[in-house]
Amino acid sequence: MNLKQMIFGSGIKGLEPSGSVGIAGSVQDWLPVKSIVDGVVITKDNRFVKIIETLPVNFHLKTLREQQTIIYYFASYLKIAPANLQIRVVTQRLDLEGYISQMKGFLKTEENEKCRELIEDNIDMVSDVVANEVNTRRFFIIFQYEPRMKARTNTIRAIAERLAEEAETARRYLDLCGLEVLEPVYTDNAALELLYELTNKRTARRVRLPSGVFDMITDVHGIYGNNG
Hints:
Blueprint: H1 3-8, H2 27-30, E1 33-37, E2 40-43, E3 48-55, H3 64-80, E4 85-93, H4 97-109, H5 113-132, E5 135-144, H6 156-176, E6 180-181, H7 187-199, H8 201-204
């Protein structure tokens, strides 16, 4: 059994009726995701969801003309955007636990009293900053396949291709707004890592998915295999 099957369950070959595909209480039992194909997240209720990540710009630092341009092109995009469009902002505290742990290690071995005071002050300052001031934010645009999109065929691959076209349209308009849309080389890997980070917020801050994991979500090992 490969990693993809462990996470999403096994025996999924097409768009069969949704339902529990895992052992009761297991990850695949409660996670509403069936699989990932060509960077598209397929849910248990057979929705095809595309997630793109964009880097923000500070609107208030733009000139009046630049602000008007951003508003114009973003409004233009919304007119043709998928009907079920979500804009999600994920906020997390800056992860400095590793740094703080390292400083505490120095504190245990430091013999000079003045240096110990400096280390303690540094730990207190960093802890206060993390608790009250420093956040990291990631911005996502999320949409799903809709009948009006009309994929060339009613197959998984064709639907994924159609959603990729929608993502490219969004990318062109957002580029005109001065927003950079991230383009991962391996879209399945990026989607899997994102799901891992969103469902394991604390763990993901200190434990990254090993590089070998991504080799297990290719078409060779994928649940859908040659389907579609």
